[in-house]
Design goal:
Layout lengths: L5 E6 L18 H9 L12 E6 L14 E7 L3 E7 L3 H12 L13 H6 L4 H4 L6 E2 L3 E6 L6 H20 L2 E3 L5 E2 L6 E2 L9 E8 L11 E4 L18 E4 L7 H10 L5
Parallel strand pairs: 1-2, 6-10, 7-10
Antiparallel strand pairs: 1-3, 3-4, 4-5, 6-11, 8-9, 11-12
Helix pairs in contact: 1-2, 5-6
Pfam family, one: Suc_Fer-like
Organism: Monilinia fructigena
Family: Belongs to the AIM32 family.
Length: about 270
């Protein structure tokens, strides 16, 4: 897997996709729009800033006062940001996503010879980030399992099995599995992830994602640990803010993976 600066998780609400996700709906989709801007020949193309674009089975947030408006939601990791509203009718929101969240704050030295205007175009913009409303910090663990059967039947078989097992084991380890769309209040200021008065030590979302490489290593699992994650003893988690990739997750490994996501240590 090539190193990447950010991974975009597009909340599609689906558990499988065409082999090339940008070809879904005849190319009318968020993955295609992002690749148009940062892919080869795109306005913000930079070979030294690799962004991994994936679809996820998580549902998108619905704008409560305008439910008829088609929008996408997206997670950005390891920045651990959740962007609830990306209207499909506006390409400006896609540019704000790319320019505000996916570009680097400092360019590779190979770009030193570029003009100031060109350099500025390839750098992250705080103003563009503020264009998107109700952006939230991600506080729950993300368990991402490749289930892209449209790309590789092995992932299509192992993905749902691993998803069900994570959802079974995590509550046993005192981790609440969150389901459904992230709800954001009409004023964009409140994120409701569960019962507000219910004491929850840790939370996680478990979802299937599109292809991330490594066909023969199915099932592939990525665990993203939020920056403020703590261990079972209340100490700062040693892997807080990190992503952990696991391959060849088989039946015998399921419980180990769930424990690892909880407290960062293997238990046989």
């Amino acid at each position: 897997m090539v190193a990447y600066s950010e991974q975009v998780l597009i909340c599609s609400g689906k558990s499988d996709w065409p082999s090339r996700i940008e070809e879904e709906s005849s190319g009318d989709n968020l993955a295609a729009d992002i690749k148009e801007l940062i892919g080869r020949g795109g306005m913000y193309s930079d070979p030294y800033n690799n962004v991994l674009i994936t679809n996820a089975s998580f549902p998108s947030t619905i704008l409560s006062h305008r439910p008829e408006l088609l929008t996408n939601s997206a997670y950005i990791v390891p920045s651990f940001k959740y962007i609830p509203f990306l209207p499909r009718v506006s390409f400006d929101s896609v540019q704000a996503l790319v320019k505000g969240f996916l570009l680097p704050t400092k360019l590779h030295p190979a770009h030193d010879s570029l003009s100031p205007i060109h350099k500025d175009r390839l750098l992250k913009s705080k103003e563009q980030a503020e264009f998107l409303p109700a952006v939230k910090d991600v506080k729950e663990m993300l368990v991402l399992i490749c289930g892209h059967g449209g790309r590789d039947v092995r992932c299509g078989i192992t993905g749902p099995i691993l998803q069900a097992e994570f959802e079974r084991v995590l509550p046993v380890k005192d981790v609440q599995v969150l389901k459904g769309a992230v709800e954001v209040g009409d004023n964009g200021a409140t994120e409701l992830l569960g019962a507000p008065n219910e004491p929850v030590i840790k939370t996680a979302r478990v979802g299937l994602i599109s292809h991330i490489g490594g066909h023969k290593f199915a099932g592939n699992v990525i665990l993203y640990i939020p920056p403020k994650m703590t261990t079972m003893d209340g100490e700062a988690h040693p892997l807080a803010g990190c992503g952990i990739w696991q391959g060849w997750e088989k039946d015998r490994d399921r419980d180990r993976s769930s424990v690892f996501a909880t407290n960062g240590s293997w238990r046989e």
